[in-house]
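DM from R.C. (forwarded with permission)

"hey, sorry to bug you on a friday — could you get me a structure for this? deadline for the figure draft is monday and I only need the backbone to look sensible"
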Amino acid sequence: MAPDLVWSRRKFLGMSALGAVGLTAAACGGGPPAAPKVDVQVSQAVLDAAAPFRGQSAGMLSQKLYSEAANQALDRSLQAFAQATGTTVQNDLVSGDAGDLVAKMDADVKAGTARDLAFMSDARFVGQLHNLGDLTDVTDVVEEMKKLYGEPATEATNYCVFEGRWFAIPYHFIASGMYLRKDWYAEKGIALKPHYSWEELRDNALAVSDPAKRRFGWGLTVNRSGDANGFIENVINTYGGAIADNTGRKVTLNSPETVEAVSFIGDIYTNPKYKPMLPPGIESWTDSSNNENWLAQILGLTLNQFSVYADSKTKGNPVYANTHVISGATGPAIDKPLAYGQSNSFVVFKGAKNPDLAKQVAKFMVSGSALLGVAQGAPCLVNPAWEKVWDSDPYYSSGDPAYGPIREQTRTPLPLTTTTGYSFPQPPSPGQQAAVAAYLLTDMMQSVVQGTPAAQAVATTHERMVQIFEQQGYKQ
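My reply, with the result:
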């Protein structure tokens, strides 16, 4: 793996152990309130399964979690496994937003230098890696885990399964979330609801804004970032458009519905009417900017994974008590949010030097004790991906009021279908994943903000996507 992708390296050397190893994992850091401590237990069943690998090693890549406390807790779970089983697990943290993650992983596999396993977003990366022929079939592992932990989150069957076979092992679930300031809504007499339309959110954001008080109702950017990609694509989908058809193979971006959605978004950033609700510098925000501004308590609405929610809770930020969580927004083509989340999932690379040990590591990390400290370090951001793991500790039923809705999101009946006939989530599409990773959606919106008519920007982006799909082997 190229050095610019590696954030830090941690190596865990195995030690002799005869039974379960309890490692105290501080589950949150930086500020109050302190989370309960977790003893990471390595069961006798894990010891028995890993016995043939004593003295052996495996290399692992971890998609860097927003919470450093969660990264540390993950390391402690790996260390517990390594010490108890007498193995070595080397863990490297990598950024999921570097833009060239898949290309570099593919290069490592082709060069025979890849790690044994990695976990990463199944929605963003697994389809591309499978299409490149980089992943090992792990159906046997998943079927074994179903006997232990029940069913995984419904989204996983869409993003991890190809032609009836599993090529990724769900690790932890990442819910979809939007956050608004319920105290600001109350001051303006705006009712709190489970979800709103995009137009309602826009109008409410303007209503609660007061630049003189440093209150800006709209905290969503269209600058190059993962959050902006998610925002733009969601609006397009709820308006009835889609990047690709329901096979994931044919580009369908250029439609009247997409043009309408892009016009709606563009108007927010160009119409003087909405200037009071836009915080200074929003045009150049990155993925961390909305987190920072939400925690600075100047935003009335933002869209984010539960990283910002976790941070506000673990560090005692007053915004936590004033946060109203919604699962997403609706549009003209669907009356419920397109909210089904994604999972960070384990993959085992082709050519792995120790794939069998890698599978044992993955099975252990999914378990209740190994996951609990990570979940407490990033509350509501890191959640069980498996049904019975939800029942493994009372923390998941009483640790935060958001856990109930998050668990229900893991059970969302899929697919969700718009009035235009698109079903979501669509089959994993390497072309779509590559097009989004190349920031074509944000580039499209930037051109609109700079004055390009929406229809022209959509048509141009459609053609750019066609080129990427064809590069992935999908003739248009």
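R.C.: lifesaver. Residues 1-9, 15-36 have pLDDT under 50 and may be disordered.
me: no worries. The CA atoms of residues 199 and 264 lie 9 Å apart.
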